[in-house]
Structure formats: structure tokens, C-alpha cells
Specification:
468 residues; alpha+beta; Immunoglobulin-like; Purple Acid Phosphatase, chain A, domain 2; 11 helices; binds fe (ii) ion; Purple acid phosphatase; EC 3.1.3.2; PAPs_N; acid phosphatase activity; metal ion binding
């Protein structure tokens, strides 16, 4: 495998441009837009120490660590990044008695104005399980408002996490946002999965669109771990806005990572490494090798018994029945079969070999549920109960949260492997009830929150599909 891989990489290096593109080489001309902001910048010195764009993520230890990330235009005079926090129960009387410090990284956007900001990160460690914490972030130069989050009930697997899952939500036409904010304020979720494509685009208008999007989702993300993977809309300047603004675990600039939540092992991947070859091939190879190791570890008998569900999420689907020319409308999707001709790094064989239960995608601005499928073969559990002990992964496409590009239509003739589709704007809810039962439902924002699709995925045993 290693020699074969080297030969392929050598061959590809002759036909593909490699290395990182510089911002200027990849930039497209953008119309200058003069705003009040520009007027002020040109005539008045403004300092900006006030934290904004506050958002959370799970740390390396999902059960006891939360990373708080925020932004300031100016670096505070004492150059500090601080979170003060404490149990909500005593915060009113005792104040925020715990204190954690981190650091700030200067981020310079690749656009023509090279707008800069400081991204602050602080990891809260050794948090108590099942506890509501109140926190604020900032420095002696300015504190954020107070926010709350709740830690996971337990590091064990015997609890039932609830998540909202969606992709393709932009600054403009973020139709599902208000409903997601309401859901969050009602305490419906333990985490969010945003499966790529943010803001449209984060780098647009000298990264102001990214700033405003991060302010929009603060109403969710300052209260819940907001877990993300990159989409094609994050590509500009080698995904620099995406890499800079989030704080996923794993030390891969937010590109791929995994975490455990209740009975589920979640794996987030970048599908974009298969498509933007101008940034080189290394990340694709690293991710593929990491993914196989991660799947192997998740399949260690004791681990799979404790946390039997494996859910993978990434931006571009392997299958879809939409009416456009995206890769998923073709039969040889790059992520599914790997490189043309050599068929290396294909993910579907890995998913099949290591018994991935659910694969969640976005990119198509619609919702689609597939029958259990492998290599275009429907492999239902049985005719009467397709999702009971299925013999292949279940794929969902949920990219309809709302963006300025609008909806994606479907083809007149829907393939036999497609079980349900909808063009309604909305998002997916997952509740992982236990080691044998997952429940999914699709919320339609167009229909005032109506559930337009739901199904139970039931498995008595988990593992490779190769022997089934
Ligand atoms: Fe996309």
C-alpha cells in the first residue's frame, strides 16, 4: 500500500499543481464597497477590545472540556484571553470564581484590505459532568455578556444525546436560524453539527460576511458546542477563514476529528480535500490514514460494545438525486470511489469495512434520505423493516438550512435507492436513544416546524457489513 501510494502521488504530482496557493494568486477581484466602517477607519482611531462572535466547541475530552472562542479587532493591552466561569447555581450569589486563560492568534484575511482580527481561545478543563456553567470571556479591557452551557451528563455511554444537524446556512436567507435559536433556548440540544458551507462566504466583503455570520450564530454557538466541517464555500485562501475561526479537537485546523457523545462515536471529515487539489494532496492522505486508524480504534471490541454507533459527517454527498451537475449526481463520486482510474482513498469501502452506521452530508440545498446502500446496491434489513439491522450505511443529505443560493431541485425520475426527498428549508434532529436505537427527524421551516420525515435506525449488533 505504501509503495503504491507513493507511486500514485508521484504520478499525480506531474499532472496537478501542488503546494499552497497564496491569497493573491487565488483572489478574484471584488467590488470595493464603502461603508460607515471604512469612513471611520480612515478618519478616527478605533479600538475594539469588546469580545464578539463567541462560540463553543468540545475540547479533546468531550466529557470535561469546552473551548471558548471569540474575536476582537484589537489585541487587549494586557494581551490576555480570559474566561471567568462557575456553576450557574452559585454564579448569582458567588460570582464567576473560576478562571482560565488561553491565547490569541492574529488572523489576516486574504482579501484586498487584509482585514485583521484576533481570535481568542481558552479551554475550560476538568468541568463537572451534568452541570450548567455561566461564563463570560474577554480581558481587563472588556468582558462579553454572560452565557451558559451545560456539560454532558456523563463520560459513559448510557445517556441519550440530542443534536441538530444541517449544512449550507448563510448570512443571507438563513431561514432556519430563528427556529434553531428557539430550539436552543428551550434546551433541546446537546450539540450542533454544521456540515459545511457557512456565511456565503466567510471571506466575502473582506471577511465582514464571516464576522456577521459568526455574530448571527453566537445566539446558538455561545450556548452549545458548535461542531463543524469545511465545505466548498470555505475554500478561499486555502480555507483560512474556516481554519482561523473555529476550534475543533484533533489539532488538524478543524479539518477532521472525532468525538464521543453518549453511545455515538462522531467523525467529522473534509470532503474538500478530494476536490481542491491546488492545495496539494497531503491533507487527503493524512485524513484517509487517520480515518482508517480512527475507525479501527472505534471497532476495538470493548470500544464498539460501549459505543456501538459510528456516525460520519462531511460536506459533499456520495449519492444524491438532485437535478444539477454536482459530483454526487455522477456514479463515481470522488469521495465514494477515490481517485479516477486508480480508485485509491475511496471512503465508501472504508465505511463498509468498518461498519459506519450513518453518513451525513449537505451541499445539496435540500433533504434526502436513502435506503441503506453500498456501491449502488440497496441493502435493507428486510423488506418490511429496511432500517432494522441494515446491511449497509444509511446516508442522509441535509443541506437545506437556508442560504442565498436558494433550493436545489430534484430530477423527475427519482432513483430506487432514494427513500424520501424534500426541497423545504429546514434541518435534521438526531436523538441517540441507546445502543440499539437512533431516531432521526426532519424539521421543515417552510411548514412552521412540521416534522416532514422521521425514521428509527435499529441495530442489535454493529460492525463490518462484509460478512452480512
Ligand atoms: Fe457546498
Amino acid at each position: 500500500m505504501a509503495i503504491k501510494m507513493q507511486l500514485v502521488l508521484l504520478a499525480l504530482s506531474f499532472i496537478l499543481p501542488s503546494g499552497l496557493a497564496s491569497p493573491s494568486s487565488n483572489g478574484s477581484p471584488e467590488e470595493p464597497i464603502m461603508t460607515l466602517d471604512d469612513d471611520l477607519e480612515s478618519s478616527v482611531h478605533i479600538v475594539h477590545y469588546q469580545p464578539e462572535q463567541v462560540h463553543l466547541a468540545f475540547g479533546e475530552r468531550t466529557d470535561s472540556e469546552i473551548v471558548v472562542t471569540w474575536s476582537t479587532r484589537s489585541l487587549p493591552p494586557d494581551m490576555s484571553s480570559v474566561v471567568e466561569y462557575g456553576p450557574t447555581e452559585t454564579a448569582a450569589s458567588d460570582g464567576l470564581r473560576q478562571r482560565a486563560t488561553g491565547g490569541a492568534t492574529k488572523f489576516v484575511d486574504g482579501g484586498r484590505k487584509h482585514k485583521s482580527q484576533f481570535i481568542h481561545r481558552v479551554t475550560l478543563r476538568q468541568l463537572e459532568p451534568n452541570t450548567s456553567y455561566t461564563y463570560h470571556c474577554g480581558s481587563a479591557a472588556g468582558w462579553s455578556a454572560r452565557y451558559q452551557f451545560r456539560t454532558v451528563p456523563s463520560s459513559e455511554s448510557d445517556w441519550s444525546p440530542s443534536l441538530a444537524i444541517y449544512g449550507d446556512m448563510g448570512n443571507e436567507n438563513a431561514q432556519s436560524l430563528a427556529r434553531l435559536q428557539q430550539d436552543t433556548q428551550q434546551g433541546m440540544y446537546d450539540a450542533i453539527l454544521h456540515v459545511g458551507d457557512f456565511a456565503y462566504d466567510m471571506n466575502s466583503n473582506d471577511a465582514r460576511v464571516g464576522d456577521e455570520f459568526m455574530r448571527q450564530v453566537e445566539t446558538i454557538a455561545a450556548y452549545l458546542p458548535y461542531m463543524v466541517v469545511p465545505g466548498n464555500h470555505e475554500e478561499k485562501f486555502n480555507f483560512s477563514n474556516y481554519r482561523a475561526r473555529f476550534s475543533m479537537p484533533g489539532g488538524t485546523d478543524n479539518l477532521f476529528y472525532s468525538f464521543d457523545l453518549g453511545p455515538v462515536h462522531f467523525i467529522g471529515i473534509s470532503t474538500e480535500v478530494y476536490y481542491f487539489l491546488n492545495y496539494g494532496l497531503k491533507t487527503l492522505v493524512f485524513q484517509y490514514e487517520w480515518l482508517e486508524r480512527d475507525l479501527q480504534a472505534a471497532n476495538e471490541p470493548a470500544q464498539r460494545a460501549k459505543r456501538p454507533w459510528i456516525v460520519v459527517y462531511g460536506h459533499r454527498p456520495m449519492y444524491c438525486s438532485n437535478e444539477n451537475d454536482n459530483d454526487c449526481t455522477h456514479s463515481e463520486t470522488l469521495t465514494r470511489v477515490g481517485w479516477p482510474f486508480v480508485h485509491m482513498f475511496g471512503l465508501e469501502p472504508l465505511f463498509y469495512k468498518y461498519g459506519v452506521d450513518v453518513a451525513i452530508w449537505a451541499h445539496e440545498h435540500s433533504y434526502e434520505r436513502l435506503w441503506p446502500i453500498y456501491d449502488y446496491q440497496v441493502r435493507n434489513g428486510s423488506l418490511g423493516s429496511p432500517y432494522e439491522n441494515p446491511r449497509a450505511p444509511v446516508h442522509l443529505v441535509t443541506g437545506s438550512a437556508g442560504c442565498k443560493e436558494g433550493r436545489e431541485p430534484f430530477k423527475g425520475k427519482i432513483p430506487v435507492w432514494s427513500a424520501f426527498h424534500s426541497q423545504d428549508y429546514g434541518y435534521t434532529r438526531l436523538k441517540a436513544h441507546n445502543r440499539t436505537h437512533l431516531y432521526f427527524e426532519q424539521v421543515s421551516d417552510d411548514q412552521n416546524g412540521a416534522i416532514i420525515d422521521s425514521f428509527w435506525l435499529i441495530k442489535n449488533q454493529h460492525g463490518s457489513y462484509e460478512d452480512l
